[in-house]
Design goal:
The chain has ten helices and 13 strands. By secondary structure, it is an alpha/beta fold. A seven-stranded mixed beta sheet has the order 6-7-8-3-9-10-11, with helices on both faces. Strands 2-1-4-5 form a four-stranded antiparallel beta sheet, covered by helices on one side. Strands 12-13 form a two-stranded antiparallel sheet.
Length: 321
């Protein structure tokens, strides 16, 4: 007679394998209009015998329709965060909810549906976004074909008009400038009406004027279609171009810069404005009461591994020991 325990073990293994590939996650409702919620997010990469902490207890909430910049130097963890939000990577610890999806519990099928329907990607290199032998219009229609629900030519044309390429619909990428190619890439990313648009250094290969124009396009689609836009960049000067700039340092959110007045996105000079005149800057305190003091403050005060905290009225004073 067959070993029942072995049979159960094999059956359990097959069921687990089947669920990890084909199961469909039941989406949860969005709380308080937060379309993205990261709770104590941790990501560890193993390199040989070493463990590298890319994210260390990061916490972030983004509201629907918000335009947010994730800013940080190389190695700060911003690209890791983008990959997790895009379903390209999984967290080691913590929880991530995006538009009702639990990123931690996605099956292989879930990830395909999530990346196809919920997320739109715009990469730094235009050649990664576009098929070179297709026209701009055909590039926008391609994601619709892959989704398998037929073409919506009216929507494709509307998107290209929205990004300012009415007269370039039938041109191929090689006939366009870098800025025009990125405009097409934005239209492609919006083809399947995603709730969230993720952009990885979208202006990194462009001059400042063209970069400002690309941010104008991001704001236009965010305003007109209610799309949440997340832009990852190392350029701190772009903090003035978004509703909220979140700076990552050593795998955690260190500061936030929040817009306090309406920006004139019709004026391409908005990127050169003084951020202090348009945004308020805050140090972020996480759920455990931790905060990161800006590096220039630490140097000026001579603070290294310890500091003295004093409560004076309604203020907390930080001093060198």
């Amino acid at each position: 007679m067959p070993d029942r325990k072995t049979g159960e073990g094999v059956s359990g293994l097959l069921a687990s394998l089947f669920n990890s590939i084909f199961s469909r996650q039941e989406l949860t409702s969005i709380k308080d209009d937060f379309i993205i919620e990261c709770e104590n997010l941790v990501k560890i990469y193993k390199v040989a015998d070493l463990e590298v902490f890319a994210l260390q207890g990061l916490e972030l909430k983004v509201k629907k329709g918000e335009m947010v910049g994730i800013i940080g130097s190389s190695g700060s963890g911003k690209s890791t965060l983008l990959n997790i939000l895009g379903g390209l990577d999984t967290p080691t610890g913590g929880r991530v909810f995006v538009n009702g999806w639990n990123i931690n519990k996605m099956s292989y099928r879930d990830k395909i549906l999530y990346k196809r329907d919920t997320i739109g990607f715009v990469w730094q290199n235009p050649s990664r976004n576009l098929v070179p032998y297709l026209t701009a219009l055909e590039n926008v229609q391609l994601p619709m074909i892959l989704k398998g629900r037929g073409l919506d030519r009216k929507w494709a044309r509307e998107l290209l008009e929205a990004v300012g390429l009415t007269d370039w619909m039938h041109h191929k990428p090689m006939q366009m400038s870098g800025g025009q190619q990125q405009r097409v890439a934005i239209a492609v990313a919006l083809a399947n009406r995603p709730a969230i648009l993720l952009a990885d250094e979208p202006t990194g290969a462009l001059d400042s004027k063209t970069g400002a124009e690309i941010f104008q396009v991001f704001k236009r689609v965010s305003r007109e279609y209610g799309t949440t836009v997340i832009v990852v960049t190392h350029d701190r000067s772009l903090a003035g171009a978004v509703d909220r700039a979140v700076e990552i340092r050593d795998g955690k959110i260190s500061t936030e810069t929040v817009r306090n007045i309406e920006l004139d996105y019709d004026n391409a000079e908005f990127l050169t404005d003084n951020v202090e005149d348009t945004h308020s800057k805050y140090v972020v305190v996480d759920s455990a009461g931790r905060l990161q003091i800006p590096e220039d403050y630490l140097k000026e005060l001579g603070i290294k591994d310890k500091a003295v905290l004093e409560l004076e009225g309604n203020k907390v004073v930080i001093k060198s020991p």
